Amino acid sequence: MKQRESPLLQRISAQVKAGRARFHVPAHGGGAGLPPELRRALWRYAALDLTELPGLDDLHNPRGAIARAEQLAAELYGADGSFFLTGGASAGVLAMLLAALEPGQQVLVPRNAHGSVYHGLVLSGAAPCYLPVTQYGFVPLNVTAAQVRKGLDQNPKVRAVLLTSPGYHGVCAPLAEIAAVTRERGVLLLLDEAHGAHLPFHSSLPEHPGELADLRVQSWHKTLGALTPGAVLHRYGTRVCPERLRQALQWVQTSSPPYPLLLSLDAARRQMALNGSRRLGRVLARACRLRRALAGYLPLLERAQVKAQGFDLDITRLTVLTGEAGLSGAAAASALRAAGIDVEMAAPDHVLLVLGLGAGRRETAQVLRALRRLPLTGQIAAGAIPPPPLPLPVISPREAAFLPARRVTLEQSVGQVAAAPVTAFPPGIPVLAPGELVTEEVCRYLHTASRHGVSWRGFDSRGRLLVCEGVNKQCPGKDCS
């Protein structure tokens, strides 16, 4: 019954209804100070846009409504402590690394990790040991317990394993098996579960026991209906110092948190606790109908395919393998956009569609019509190439970030050491991490993917990337052994 509460809604609604004169920030004063062209669209939002007034609590030292809302979130997910994040799951990932690791300590990182992990490596000074990720064609799946065990065997000084599950395409790693390995070895398990906050609320979704992690980050705006970029970090046990975690969260979050976003997190928690199974059931039913209607016409990443590799799949993530039917992902996304549909991601050989809580019958029927009208040739599309082998790490990400650097063309970068990540957005997974050697294979992959519509962060407007100056490129790579 406690999950019916909405402590933040009650406190903020009371504050707004009181009609108090606003002689405090923000400057728009509840809406009157907004630019005229935005007043109609944002008036109600602005009325809720308050600051740390008496009774509204303090995100970084919660004692009232925010503390109660976070406690309810912790109870829902079985956590020992939960923390609202106003900087997205990215802020949570940074806080996890800063709280769990000291400079120079080693962390096992699968190469499907989000770009925020690499930023966290720079800030924390932790030393990464990278794991390759199992692929299905050109789609990254995840890592198995056997791969984690091998990584720990090869790198016995590792302090923590940072797992990304589900991955961007909804592929879930065998979390219980991996948690058993990390417990056996006495290392921390840090879970980037940005795309998986909804998984516990329906039996047809993959079993994903995130409570086995020491720290767990979720993007509630991605799957639970909160405002962007609302997210939550959960703590289990005390193997990561609670006070150090609280301090790390203050380092990476704003001192002026947006109350509408905090309110949306509280409301999303209540919605899922009371109606999550029913609402997700409707989404899953539409995803199943959509998949059945496309069977035999368009190749999709299916649950049976990933289970054969030791993983599971959230079927609300629809990966359409257009390359197998003769159409590049960029061309497919362009055709869908012309039909009034925006997709989550276009890769060289596939597109990714996300069916969220807002996906209704009309939208599902619209996307089905558009997908069935794609100009397919029935042949394998040209241009898709597999990701390159993992580049050789020469120096740590932190060292690379603080060395003098210069911009060079992609061709000139071969044999140089990257000073900054080169990352496709979406999904935010770097092909090249700071401190790694730029190889011909990496160069060729970046060039080909660019020609097929992939957008990269890490290049300037002239197509140049940052490389380190003064690095001995002949030195052996650090293998974290």
Model description:
The protein is built from 15 helices and 19 strands. The protein is an alpha+beta fold and 481 residues long. The protein folds into three domains: 2-273, Aspartate Aminotransferase, domain 2 (3-Layer(aba) Sandwich), CATH 3.40.640.10; 277-372, Aspartate Aminotransferase, domain 1 (Alpha-Beta Complex); 397-468, Alpha-Beta Complex (Molybdopterin biosynthesis moea protein, domain 2), CATH 3.90.105.10. Strand 4 and strand 5 (139-140) form a beta hairpin. Helix 4 (88-100) crosses helix 9. The protein is globular and about 65 Å long. Mean pLDDT is 93; it is low at 474-481.
Which helices and strands, and how do they pair?
Elements: H1 7-17, H2 36-48, H3 65-76, E1 81-85, H4 88-100, E2 106-110, H5 115-124, E3 127-131, E4 135-136, E5 139-140, H6 145-154, E6 158-164, E7 171-172, H7 175-185, E8 188-192, E9 215-218, H8 220-223, E10 231-235, H9 242-252, H10 259-294, H11 303-307, E11 312-313, E12 317-320, H12 329-338, E13 345-346, E14 351-354, H13 361-372, H14 397-402, E15 405-409, E16 422-424, E17 429-432, H15 440-451, E18 456-457, E19 464-468
Helix pairs in contact: 1-10, 3-10, 4-5, 4-9, 6-7, 10-13
Give me the CATH superfamily of the largest domain: Type I PLP-dependent aspartate aminotransferase-like (Major domain)
Q: What is the gyration radius calculated from CA atoms?
A: 23 Å
The major β-sheet equals: 7 strands, mixed
Q: What is the average of the pLDDT values?
A: 93
Strands ordered across the widest β-sheet: 1-10-9-8-6-2-3
The coarse silhouette is globular
Q: What is the number of strand segments?
A: 19
Low-pLDDT parts are 474-481
How many domains make up the coordinates?
A: 3
SS content category: alpha+beta
Termini Cα gap? 51 Å
Helix content: 25-40%
Question: Strand percentage, roughly?
Answer: 15-25%
Count helical runs.
Answer: 15
- CATH fold annotation of the largest domain: Aspartate Aminotransferase, domain 2
CATH class of the largest domain: Alpha Beta
- Tell me what the CATH architecture of the largest domain is: 3-Layer(aba) Sandwich
